[in-house]
Design a protein that fits this description.
By secondary structure, the protein is an alpha+beta fold. It folds into four domains: 138 residues, no CATH class; 73 residues, no CATH class; 333 residues, no CATH class; 61 residues, OB fold (Dihydrolipoamide Acetyltransferase, E2P) (Beta Barrel), CATH 2.40.50. 39% of the residues lie in helices and 24% in strands. The protein contains 19 helices and 25 strands. Strands 9, 10, 11, 12, 15 and 16 form a six-stranded mixed beta sheet that branches. β13 and β14 form a beta hairpin.
Amino acid sequence: MEPGEVIEYFHRKQILCAVIIDKKKNKYQLINENNREVSMSENRFIHVSQDRLDLKMGRDRLVRRLNEIASRRRELQMEINIKELWEVVYEEAAWFDVRTLAELSFGGEITDDHISAVRRAIFEDRIYFKFDIDRFYPNSPRLVEQIRIQIEEEEKRIQAVEQGARWLKQVHEAKGGEFPGVDSETVEVLKSYYLFGKESPHYAFAKEILKRAGLDIEEGPFYILTKLGIWSHDENLDLHRYQITNEFSPEVIKAAEELFLNARHGYHNHAYRRDLTHLNLITIDGQATQDFDDALSVEQEENGCRIGIHITDVSHFIPKGSVLDQEALVRASSIYMPDARITMLPPCLSEDLFSLRKGEDRPAISIMAHLDDTARVVDYEIFPSIIRVSRQLTYFDVNQIIEDDHDLALLYRMAQKLLRKRIHAGAIQLNIPEIYIRVDEQGEIVLKQVNQENPGRTLVSECMVLANWLAGNFLKDHDQPAIYRSQMEPRQRLVTGNGGSLYQNWMQRKFLNRVILDLEPQPHSALGLDVYVTFTSPIRKYFDLVTQRQLRAVLGLEDSYTKDELRHIVNLLEQPLSQIMQIQIRRTQYWILRYLERKIGEKEEALVLDRQRNHYLILLTAYLIETSLPLTCGLDLRPEDRIEVTIKRVDARSGTLTVAV
């Protein structure tokens, strides 16, 4: 090719005309129709004209001539009906050169302008032909239709982007609470994008409309959704991510209401239930508890006492496979958070019919254990019963009256002995305070640290551990399949007995192995027991409901689960229970951080846990929340050091907590 020749090339999905000015090595120097100098190799040329331009005419005239050529070719392009051209040739299913297609389109003498016009028309259309620079192949009718649909969908997408961006901008600029009508499709797109990020099927679309609207691509969706009142500023995003709701379906509500109305007194006529309504039964729970699963009784005997652990018999009311049972299986567990509670079963059941409410008769599965003065279990029995709670106490109540209450004092003494026996057997009793945090009806955050080592909590905890251990032995001795809980020895022991510093207890928890669910009984090292199941919370936990059914099967009250059925249940519950644990931990941390947002600039005590590569890991002792302190803080610290830090920055939504010395 020589200087003066007119060529065409692609640039940003357009065909441009240019004239060759010079050649240097393997690249040609060009001036294009936009009066720009460009350099490119020959393989980028898509057409070379036979005519030449005289370079002596000067640059301005060259550019004018290039524009005249391009204009002629665009005018000829407008005369081409690509669909009609395709209809003439598609049945031959062969490659056609551009000159042949130009002859079919125009007839008569064919010039470079005609050839360029055909090429331009086909390149811009992209529906009826596929191409390879100088060759064109007609697409099949089926492929043509597919391409047309794709183009229509893309046009709809572009329109939706423009519409969504326009609506977002209107919401952003709206003042005084006067918003345009809600664009429900865009709202759902924003939710999905904010909750799932790159995993969202709407990721690219949402990002595009946010950019078009001039909004932050990370926090823009949350800003819009809260401004519209669709989400609150404290929205629990995990509930949306895992599609967890406090609402029950109409079918479940109907089943619950029918059960509530029809089953309140049916168990009184069952001769197999032992009447224990004469016993002084006590429930001990948190102040806000409404779903009472368990009650305790104690009777002084010579050389010991008889402790009763009575668990509400939920299985009596809910058959396996029923609507209510399936709902409980899907939910897996009740969820307890500082600002909300989501129950496994409808409240008319969990807080009424099944709940061990004071003065009301309830069916139960009772464990009566005879303990000697050393808290050794002499004998025990498990049986169905009818019970009536006479006192409903809180942990606080118990701690206040225990010295003057014979039954509570006796239970506490036995609980202490049971705990000592477990510790002697290798149990690890972590002495870590509990952070009690809740959000009241006015939105105020109430936070306090509660010592777990108080009489009320110790008493209840040890009685429940005793009940679960005895239930495990009962099922094992009767060769009844069950979901046993075990735990291997910790990777390292830092705590002996029930003592140790906060540092030792906190780090010990990190060294514990995860609990294993299995159908074969194995030792539970942290509890110091040879066998363990859980069945004391059947209102709140599906695993406990399953264990209760296996106990009832041994008692002849219903058919048992098979091992395969139990394995299936374990597999089904693994994911939802993991999600529930994450929700509860993250929501508690969120509200602790929200509480700390008001503490910016204040000093707090911190415990050094570890020195890592770029920072110290520390624990704010008043809130039991971990954060980091840069190694560049100017202090040479060691684990277990206590220091004072200043809270610099807190953002609960992002989970950020920054401190400095």
